[in-house]
Amino acid sequence: MSEPQPIYLSDYRPPAYRVTHTELTFDLDPAATRVKARLHVERHPDREAGAPLELDGEQLALKAIAIDGQPLGEDEYALTERGLRVERVPARFLLDTEVEIAPEDNTALEGLYQSNGMYCTQCEAEGFRRITFYPDRPDVMATFSTTVIGDAGREPVLLSNGNPVERGELPGGRHFVTWEDPHPKPCYLFALVAGDLKKVEDGFTTAGGRDVTLQIWVEEENLGKTDHAMASLKRAMRWDEETYGREYDLDLFMIVAVNDFNMGAMENKGLNIFNSAAVLTHPDTATDAAFQRVEGIVAHEYFHNWSGNRVTCRDWFQLSLKEGFTVFRDQCFSADTNSAPVKRIEEVSFFRTAQFAEDAGPTAHPVRPDHYIEIGNFYTLTIYEKGAEIVRMLRNLVGWDAFRRGSDRYFERFDGQAVTIEDFVACMAEASGRDLSQFLRWYDQAGTPEIDAHGEYDYANGVYRLVLRQRTPATPGQPDKRPLHIPIRLGLVGTKTGRDLPLTLDGEALGTDGVIHLHEEEQEFVFTEVAEAPVPSLARNFSAPVKLHFPYSREDLAFLQTHDSDGFNRWDAGQRLALLALDDLIAAHRNGVEKVMDGRVVEAFRALLAAEPDDKAVLAEMLTLPSEAYIAEQQPLVDVDAIHAARQFVKQSLALALRDDFLRVYEANRREAPYAPEPEQIGERSLKNVALSYLMSIEDEEGIELARRQFEADHNMTDVRAALTLLVHSSRDDLADPALRAFGEKWAHDPLVMDQWFSIQVSRPQSDALERVKFLMDHPAFSLTNPNKVRALIGAFAQNRINFHRADGEGYRLLADVVIELNRLNPEIAARLVTPLTRWQRFDETRQDLMKGELERIRGEALSPNLYEVIEKALA
Ligand code: TRP
Ligand code: ZN
């Protein structure tokens, strides 16, 4: 096999042939499904006569091929590893092919595969080429007519995109349904589902008066777990009408839950297919976080109907066109239906931990990459989350009204087309009259910009000078960076009054909460009429995806934590304060010096616990210390043990000093009312469980008793899981083991709960975590071919920092072993799972060598293109 070759954005050419209509017939069989395709093909008017027809196709057994009804002789076409080529074709013709595929052998979960006996498809990005020969690229859009033939007993339900137009019986116990999708779409949005499924049905009337039938299809035992997804769907449909003026465009909208799925969910036209973990909920089986995740993903996939489906991507380099915009849309939706500040805090803490790490590692890439080997490797935090941050900056730059006009323009102008990121930004520029040319660099430049800020207050003249200097570190393939247009939202908080001071910049009044624009490498901003010495509150609400350094004293941070009018920055000031204290403790640990707790952090926490919170979920966030992963991101060289020890020390010191406060908060936030996934209850549960985690960190009898009782009360999964985690992560195996056993037996029948059971035990800090992983890999509920199980067991273990990074390298070895096996079974998952090993540069030399050794061992295998690309980058 030859080395996989990169594809370049600069090589883009429109397709020589387009398909205007696609007729498919599937005769389903686990080992030998027959797929007949009739493509209505036309040569592109600008292309020369005689251009060959090239179709993508992988792992297909061709059984028949004809053009305009004439079978082709063997010398009239050529089959390659990548597809099919016909040298001479008319300007307009019908192409008929028939192929055979084996869904039961498809463990990659791309194309047509089986999950729990049911058939389903996943075509994004390039799975359709495993179903039939086709121009598998998003700029070829066709209407589809699909007939699915299955066994009437085993597959009573036969689904595809659009509307069902015909159904009937066939000989031999077979039956069929024909579906028509009137909206032209690229083949990555094609879907088929067949199996013994049950549905929950509801309805929605659009603002324009269309009655839409809503269906969620699940296995029978999951019928009781669809309420939240259905309610979320209806809220999302209404929200998109009210916020973006976007209505649904078919009479039927279906969601199907499947157990084996590589990602969260997929926006196939009219037939969204979901990982069961992203749709099923019940108070007894799903946590608050899972309820919120389901709401967000249901909305995300629904919103794609416009941002992605009606207007799609010209090529896969433009992936963030649909993903960044759609993530931004689902983030705003969730902020509107939940506690908005908490939503933002959660987004940003995740972003700064995981996306910053990606941007700083060997797989760093721009939001619009200029080359790739395997597009499946580019469904990343950079494309999704950084893409969303860019859209958010755009919204803030032009203001909501212009943004909405730009969005209307975008949907109207490009409806039914496959377009680029420039097309999107151009609509925003036109609608706002702003020059966004420098802003566009955000899409093409990888790496996290860092801003060094300094401020100086001139008492005599009432002037505050703020100097900002930006730099973006080199990333692979991009040694030199240009300055970006970075919007910085800020306030100057008066140290006397504790209030935001009016901002006057170059004679212009910006209010008390203004935005300044950094365009140059270095810029000075001079604020006049500043009546008192201020502490600057910078990049409020995380106004740009950057690292902002300012030489805050601990007093400044404690001050901002109480006085900043921006809720997000109040939280962030607390995080910065905790990080300063953690830095000292990490150093103390490394130097073998006695650790001393910073009293300012204790006092800050005492004040937080004493105040009457207006948003309990926010308070819970403020009481949560930066995660070990986030602390590690701040360190020049990661010392996993020192970080763990330092964080543990802070937590226990706080618990010892403020034990009674935590107890009081715990008691004050217990509630007996029936579970509901609503903001107020969620806030109470978060606060209560954070308090419990402090009490359990010192393992005193009262804390243990509370955790045990909470576990046994069995009120809802949020509380049960929180208590179980604390018991299992404690040093008391006499508590951990019986609780785990009881939980495992109770939920043995429920795969989504068993995922949690796996994760909880392999993320414990005790040194037996690795042995537990090995042991659990033989558990009957575990399976390497189910991505959720792999993530729950192996993925969760790789996040267990002290145990994955064991000094003997056994954690790395285990991960590499699994990656090697998955390379054959499911390359997309293998390439994701290996990520922690690719971050070797961040660790000490011994660990570096161990990690690189495992990467080399993986490189010795016959690699899938997915893994090949990641490993080559990691070892470059
Ligand atoms: N487009 C999907 C989304 O973000 C995600 C997706 C891309 C996906 N490729 C996939 C899902 C492969 C499952 C499998 O909504
Ligand atoms: Zn998406």
UniProtKB/TrEMBL annotation:
Gene that specifies this protein? pepN
Q: Name one GO molecular function term.
A: alanyl aminopeptidase activity
Domain Aminopeptidase N-like N-terminal intervals: 106-189
One Pfam match, given by its short name, reads Peptidase_M1_N
Peptidase M1 membrane alanine aminopeptidase domain mapped to chain residues: 229-441
Tell me where in this chain the Peptidase M1 alanyl aminopeptidase C-terminal domain is found.
Answer: 555-876
Sorted alphabetically, which keywords does the UniProt record give?
Answer: Aminopeptidase, Hydrolase, Metal-binding, Metalloprotease, Protease, Zinc
Which InterPro entries does the entry link to?
Aminopeptidase_N-like_N, Aminopeptidase_N-like_N_sf, PepN_Ig-like_sf, Peptidase_M1, Peptidase_M1_dom, Peptidase_M1_pepN, Peptidase_M1_pepN_C, Peptidase_M1_pepN_C_sf
Required co-factor? Zn(2+)
Please list the residue ranges annotated as the Peptidase M1 alanyl aminopeptidase Ig-like fold domain.
447-550
The source organism is: Halomonas koreensis
Q: Which reaction(s) does the protein catalyse, per the Swiss-Prot or TrEMBL entry?
A: Release of an N-terminal amino acid, Xaa-|-Yaa- from a peptide, amide or arylamide. Xaa is preferably Ala, but may be most amino acids including Pro (slow action). When a terminal hydrophobic residue is followed by a prolyl residue, the two may be released as an intact Xaa-Pro dipeptide
- Domain of life assignment: Bacteria
Name of this chain's protein: Aminopeptidase N
Documented EC number(s): 3.4.11.2
* Family under the similarity heading: Belongs to the peptidase M1 family.
